[in-house]
Amino acid sequence: MDIKDLYGLFQSSAGVSTDSRNIRPGELFIGLKGENFDGGDYALKALSDGALRAVVNAGSSAAASGNPGIIVVPDTLETLRQLARYHRENTFVGGRRLTVLGLTGTNGKTTTKNLITRVLSKKYRVTATEGNLNNDIGVPLSLLKIDSSTELAVIEMGASHPDDIAHLVEVAEPDYGLITNVGKAHLLGFGSFEGVKKAKGQLYDWVLAHGKAVFVNADDPVLASMAADREGLETISYGIEYSGSVVLPSDPSHPFLRMAVPSGRPEKEGVETLIGIETHLVGSYNAANVMAAIAVGSFFGVGIEDAIAAVEEFVPENSRSQMMRTGSNTVIADAYNANPSSMAAALDNFSMVEAPSKIVLLGDMRELGGDSQKEHEAVVRRLETLSPDLACLVGEEFAKAVASVGKAPWMRLFGTSDELASWLRENPVKDSVVLVKGSRGIRMEKAIEAL
User: Fold this and answer.
1) pLDDT in tens, 160-207
2) Phi/psi-derived region of residue 102, left when phi > 0, alpha when psi is between -120 and 50, beta in every other case
3) Where are the alpha helices (DSSP H) in 270-327?
4) CB within 8 Å of 414: residues ≥ 6 apart
5) Alpha carbon distance 182, 223 (integer Å)
6) Domain with CATH 3.90.190.20 in the chain
7) Which of 19, 137, 275, 433 has an alpha carbon 20 to 30 Å from 348's alpha carbon atom?
8) Domain spanning 3-83 has what CATH number?
9) Nearest to 135 by CA among 180, 75, 54, 80
10) Cα three-residue angle 128-131-136, rounded to 5 degrees
């Protein structure tokens, strides 16, 4: 079956699913193959549960079943990619091909994507990546969520290897691009910071060759240089300093990010008035993400008042820049991921927090390769300048770093987040502001439960 015929089935279906456990009647099931499983082995069950058809690899157990509902292909992942790309290319709004904004970056991708989606939704019907489904499976599935009501699409793209973005842009075919920042993350996969720049820059390369323009944080010298190096690339600039915006100080009565941005209306003698923004985001490092959302909204005709309202309405979740009040403490939860860039930003922000008792709970940063010990040592040294009341460090990498740098009297080491959680239950923390951060695999959210 060629992709055009498969697309005809997709159009008559209730959508696409790759999870046989949650099939809805009328969905098209695609059985993906992993290292230790083959989703095609569950294709017959998916059909019995109401799937319209089941697409499987030639080697799966269902391929030779003779069931008329089975469609056999050489590679189900490639078929998923082709189907998503075909759908993207054949979706039109007002006679024009659907506009897609592609977004990537080291830190802040999901928060920025959520903010942009909120802002654009003030004027348009937007389909966006759900959660952090930003990989070679998530991006196609996100594109296949686009329906006849969609007016704009915002597609987040993640990367941990050199060619990941290159593969994802070939599926999403973005008209516009935005890189939040380029920092030290997944160095094990990219090899170096220059490798990260080259990989993320593949979004700029695609837009230069096939798209329209990229949104660039003019305050970020790395991004500005990357854009300037691509002669002919159309840019739409934004930024805090670039726009004359201001990040306002936080304090116990205003713990979240506060900003003032130009209203777009001159007061007198050409001076613009500023409008305040009260967000539900923690950390001044989120200011650039807010400016990105406002810039995208402005370009697509969303008024500044509506954009600000959208930003103020947004409440983060899943331990992404959240501030929460527990029974005894105020917790800054930024435990979804961690790398040297985001860790430095979180600690810098925490240093400005005013509180009688400040506690830091940090988990190992993963996938840093040969730079891991050096980067963990840098975090330990940064903690020494902060001198919090207590710092609990979780994982083998922090243990190595402390052995090399030295252990301050207010530092404690734990092998796992479970051990830390048990210790916190036996030694309750009270009346403190607590920063919790670590790579997803360390599961630092377990510590939050003990606070």
Assistant:
1) 788 999 999 999 999 999 999 987 665 666 668 788 889 899 999 999
2) beta
3) 287-299, 304-313
4) 392, 393, 394, 420, 423
5) 7
6) 322-449
7) 275
8) 3.40.1390.10
9) 80
10) 80
Q: Are 343 and 377 in contact (CB under 8 A)?
A: no
Amino acid letter, residue 156: E
Instruction: Please report which helix (H) or strand (E) contains residue 28, including its range.
Output: strand 28-30
**Which CATH number describes the domain made up of 322-449?**
3.90.190.20
Q: CATH 3.40.1390.10 in the chain, residues?
A: 3-83
Write out the two tokens for 335.
Answer: 């435990």
Q: Per CATH, is 91-313 categorized as 2.40.37.10?
A: no
In 17-137, which ranges are continuous DSSP H helix? 43-48, 76-89, 109-120
Domain with CATH 3.40.1190.10 in the chain: 91-313
CA distance 130 to 138: 8
CA angle at residue 135 from 240 to 33, to 5 degrees? 175
Task: Give me the pLDDT at residue 189, please.
Answer: 65
d(CA 375, CA 381): 10
What are residue 445's phi and psi, to 5 degrees?
Answer: -65, -20
What pLDDT does residue 293 have?
Answer: 98
Helix (H) or strand (E) holding 325: strand 322-325
- CA dist 102 and 168 (Å) reads 9
The pTM of this model reads: 0.82
